[in-house]
Amino acid sequence: MSPHKDKNQMKTFVIDTNVFIHKPDAALSFKDNEIVVPLWVLEELDKLKTFSDEKGRSARQAIRFLDEVTKQGDISQGIKLDNGSVLSVSLAHAKADSLDLSLERVDNKILLCAVALQKEGRQVFFVSKDINARVKATALGIRAVDYEKQKVNYQDLYPGVKDIESSVEKITELKARGVLDWDLPAIANEFLWLKNPKLNDFAIGMYQSAAKQLEFVETSILPVCGISPLNEKQAMAFRLLMDPSVQIVTLVGKAGTGKTLLAMAAGLYHVLESHEYTKVLVSRPVIPMGKDIGYLPGAKNEKLSHWMQPLFDNLDYILSNYKKPNIKNVEALMTHNLIEVEALTYIRGRSLPHQFIVIDEAQNLSPHEIKTIVSRAGQDTKIVLTGDPQQIDSPYLDANSNGLTYLVEAFKGQEVYGHVLLDRSERSLLAELAAELL
């Protein structure tokens, strides 16, 4: 306990199950306060631990974390952690009759634990990733909060591109020399869009932090496996995708901006033309909320085909524009082991060297899941994560708390990382209108 805070001043945070799934060691985030884990949370973790997906893995990690804590004392009485907080498992239970709550639902038992603790005079905060559970808690008179530890403000998300009003001389020098000395604020691999509004002239440079220079980015580049950039930001994305020294790339944007198409075209180029990587590995979250594909009928490839169809559509389009002898269709790519389509569930535990990895729909992953995937990268592997944080299927994530936006803020400024926020749909006028108006 903090020397500045006695027990009466401590806040009591009652932690919901989904918080441990989001971050297994979430209890360490509440410094100098009391953390209470209702017994029914342990029951839910116990049921989830048998799952073979990331939810099951998180449950097992949370259980191991709590098991280590119990070795330090009596957890029913509270165990002091290194950060000054006190962690306990509680059997507290308010009467449900007067509140008209069904005890058949574990969620209600967890809420009633928070109610009972508040009746004891504690400053209770119910912490949950479940919006409906937080609304119910508020209705019961309990202060409810989201788990904020790994949240960023999506409205202020690093765009990867900065507009700079510039002189004609600097624009001309960047185009002519290919580089421009730069001593104004910028971070590694950030794109600076130098513009001269009076003459309607511009040049784009990517900041090289080691040399403190802008490197000229050509916007009218040759097609990459038959795919050409249709706007300046797509050209910036290709610059990052084609550079092996930029080992992790995030492409964020609404539907139709070309995120996945550009990533897969670059991946195929690196495998088929430059031979920088041995294969392209593509994946996406199989089912929102992380159910295993074992729930679906058929062999693994049959199960995957439905969920991976958007990726196959992109590959078919690329191959229709890219004429390569003996590579006429997706089946040929897979037969030659040049491309592998895999469920995220099966990536965990693997080491993936010399591969170009594309993770589509990454906005449906938690920060913990993103960490698990990126940590799989082996020697000389490149990872590209694409997604639209405003189209999230998971009930426990939003534009501010998903793993994709969290990674953008965590990695910005790193020499091996690059990012572009794509904002112009090139799919069709109808797709653009749908993304803007609906």
Report on the architecture of this protein:
Helices cover 34% and strands 19% of the residues. It has helices at 17-22, 39-48, 54-70, 106-119, 131-139, 168-177, 232-241, 259-272, 300-307, 309-321, 330-335, 344-347, 367-374, 403-411, 429-437, and strands spanning 11-15, 34-38, 79-80, 86-90, 123-127, 143-145, 161-165, 179-181, 191-196, 201-208, 213-216, 248-253, 279-283, 339-341, 355-359, 382-387, 417-422. The protein has 438 residues and is of the alpha/beta class. The relative contact order is 0.12. Strand 5, helix 5 (131-139) and strand 6 (143-145) form a beta-alpha-beta unit. A 6-stranded mixed beta sheet has the order 3-4-2-1-5-6. It has a 6-stranded parallel beta sheet with strand order 14-13-15-16-12-17, with helices on both faces. It is elongated. Helix 2 crosses helix 3 (54-70), helix 7 (232-241) runs parallel beside helix 8 and helix 13 (367-374) crosses helix 14. The model is unreliable at 288-293 (pLDDT under 50). The protein has 2 domains: 7-145, 5'-nuclease (Rossmann fold), CATH 3.40.50.1010; 230-437, 3-Layer(aba) Sandwich (Rossmann fold), CATH 3.40.50. The protein is built from 15 helices and 17 strands. The N and C termini lie far apart (50 Å).
